Amino acid sequence: EAQVTQNPRYLITVTGKKLTVTCSQNMNHEYMSWYRQDPGLGLRQIYYSMNVEVTDKGDVPEGYKVSRKEKRNFPLILESPSPNQTSLYFCASRPGRGIEKLFFGSGTQLSVL
Amino acid sequence: AQKITQTQPGMFVQEKEAVTLDCTYDTSDQSYGLFWYKQPSSGEMIFLIYQGSYDEQNATEGRYSLNFQKARKSANLVISASQLGDSAMYFCAMREGQDGGSQGNLIFGKGTKLSVKP
């Protein structure tokens, strides 16, 4: 089944403890992206990647890192999480630069205490 | 300035009636795409409908249609014959640039929460 898989689904952590949210897609998509969703703000893009080893900042990249060593994986790294990073996170992918829709993962609800 | 504006934070509709969710956008690109996504309480993002800027006809997908008014830069979602399962958050989104012109990132509005009353 074609899908974008995020793990974990829920995560509670403490300030300053490094964490990684994994994202994997099995559709051979070139483009992958991370969004965060906050009440009243909609979805805001954190980072995106056009292909392997090609990443770029979105609208709210501060406090986050990403890597794209393989086409299928696009992990989101929080080196030193803070409470203002408590949010619902989505990974998404699409084939390339066309007009194709984004395929979303099921989301990761992160709480930083 | 916001690129995607959804002016209705919340809306109610009676079951079996039609409802229109508003979306206006701002872009100077000639080529762009407009999307609507549904997010039920379970949290997943479900693609509903797409409209390209060069498409002359309004997009339709089952009970969903997109009322595209290019001159007014509006892309309203119309849901016909509302069902209880339509209760959800709805997001309008835009992708600027189509072929090779930009990275084509999707920009989302803040969403409209639709509640369908029995």
Q: What's this entry about, in short?
A:
The complex is a heterodimer of chains A (113) and B (118). With 113 residues, chain A is mainly β. Chain A contains no helices and 11 strands.
Written overview of the protein:
The complex is a heterodimer of chains A (113) and B (118). With 113 residues, chain A is an all-beta fold. Helix content of chain A is 0%, strand content 50%. In chain A, β9 and β10 (103-104) form a beta hairpin. The mean pLDDT of chain A is 94. Chain B is globular, with a radius of gyration of 14 Å. In chain B, strands 2, 5, 6, 10, 11 and 12 form a six-stranded mixed β-sheet that branches. Chain B has a four-stranded antiparallel β-sheet with strand order 3-9-8-7, with no helix packed on it. Chain B has no helices and twelve strands. Chain B is an all-beta fold. Helix content of chain B is 0%, strand content 50%. Chains A and B meet through β4, β5, β9 and β10 of A and β5, β6, β10 and β11 of B.
Furnish the topology, listing elements before pairings.
The complex is a heterodimer of chains A (113) and B (118).
Chain A: E1 4-7, E2 10-13, E3 19-25, E4 31-38, E5 42-51, E6 54-57, E7 65-66, E8 76-78, E9 87-94, E10 103-104, E11 108-112
Parallel strand pairs in A: 2-11
Antiparallel strand pairs in A: 1-3, 3-8, 4-5, 4-9, 5-6, 7-8, 9-10, 9-11
Chain B: E1 4-5, E2 10-14, E3 19-21, E4 24-25, E5 32-39, E6 46-52, E7 60-61, E8 64-69, E9 74-79, E10 88-96, E11 106-108, E12 112-117
Parallel strand pairs in B: 2-12
Antiparallel strand pairs in B: 1-4, 3-9, 5-6, 5-10, 7-8, 8-9, 10-11, 10-12
